[in-house]
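During the reporting period the student researcher (J.K.) took over the structure-prediction task from the postdoctoral fellow and processed the backlog of single-chain submissions. One of the processed entries is reproduced below for the supervisory committee.
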Amino acid sequence: MDAQEPMRSTLKYLEKFTNYERKGVPKGAGTNSDEGFPLRRMELLMQRLGDPVSRLKVVHVAGTKGKGSVAALLGSSLRRAQLRVGTYTSPHFLTVRERITIDGVPISPEAFAALVAAHRSVLDEMRDLEGVTHFEVLTALAFKHFEEEGVDIAIMEAGLGGARDATNVIPPQSLLLAVITAIHEEHLEALGGSLEAIVHAKCGIIKEGRPVSFRA
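J.K. obtained the following structure tokens:
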């Protein structure tokens, strides 16, 4: 069998899930309102996968500019401290596997295909019953992979906004630090139409009683 076939089949399978990165994000999708993406859908998916985030220690990064750079710098610093670091970022440049890395190395084609295959029945059910999206699936699988691999810290970069982003299912006890990077007027329609609304959405990752850092 062609060695690339499992990965090709996996990518074809993932195309069944609505991909808002391709089709465009609906107006208000990232706001903490009735128009926003329903976080309950992601929470239910995580429950069906065994709630892996509850067994992780997480740094959550949101903002308009610099999220990827902050995640990379944090990961590098933590690795120098001899910690095993999982990092989830988006979008990717060449392969979706770039989004899920451990110690700077993307998940292998074999491991990625196996990760999807192992949870396909749950993903199918959640797609049919709840309409889970492509980004939600990748986010949930990243949490699951990091748990299974026993990383010391997972760095999770929010995709859109923060309050209603799929990454925002981290319970307070798992959140080591929330980081808010520079905020600009981007994705205005999806995030409420004003800079104030964007700030409100990004700051939705902050949890009561947990540390927060602002990075310009």
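The committee noted the following: Helices lie at 5-14, 20-23, 39-48, 67-80, 109-118, 120-130, 134-149, 195-202.
J.K. will present the remaining backlog at the next meeting.
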